[in-house]
Design a protein that fits this description.
Layout (H helix, E strand, L loop, with lengths): L24 H6 L3 H17 L4 H14 L3 H13 L4 H11 L8 H16 L4 H8 L4 H24 L5 H9 L7
């Protein structure tokens, strides 16, 4: 159960109601601080809509963060988003395999991006070698977008965990297909 209330549109000032368009428990809780919710949504919106990073690669990086951090909420939401952007079931299986140190059939750039995401979660920063390998394929702008995307979602999973935000019922079906080991 969440540590703060989930607010509905009629419980927030009219100028903040547009922040509840996505109708997720995350947004319903964050709007308890509407200006912070707006800032948070601005970064998240940039990542989803304006980033120059390939959307499939972006979603793979986010899925890696969610899976590694065992964030059911983040992982399930981005399975749904990712599938709309070209992430396949094989890609999702590859995220799980790569997390366990197993080889996958992902293309080399995607595998290196997953490695970079794991390094940022586990070691705070991407290694020089991983950064350099990804940089061979991405522009400076795409590199900034990738690093900030991974960092942003490292923060998001901590918000979700600290606030104990409940997963929506429509996302529970994703967990039946992709259960997270060690998560109750």
């Amino acid at each position: 159960m969440a540590r703060l209330p989930y607010l509905e549109a009629d419980q927030v000032a009219p100028e903040y109601r547009n922040m509840l368009k996505r109708n997720t428990n995350l947004h319903k809780l964050l709007v308890n601080s509407p200006d912070m919710a707006r800032a948070f949504s601005g970064v998240g919106g940039y990542i989803r809509i304006k980033s120059k990073l390939n959307p499939r690669l972006r979603e793979l990086a986010i899925l890696q963060v969610g899976w590694l951090e065992q964030s059911e909420y983040e992982f399930t939401h981005h399975v749904k988003i990712g599938k709309e952007l070209g992430v396949s079931d094989d890609d999702i299986a590859a995220v799980m395999a790569e997390t366990e140190g197993k080889e996958s059939k992902l293309e080399p750039l995607a595998r290196t991006i997953l490695k970079g995401a794991r390094e940022m979660v586990r070691e705070i920063a991407m290694s020089e070698a991983t950064f350099a390998e990804i940089k061979r394929h991405l522009s400076d702008e795409e590199m900034v977008d990738l690093v900030l995307t991974i960092a942003f979602y490292c923060g998001v999973v901590r918000v979700l965990a600290t606030m104990k935000i409940d997963i929506e019922p429509y996302c529970k079906e994703v967990l039946q297909r992709y259960p997270m080991p060690g998560v109750k």
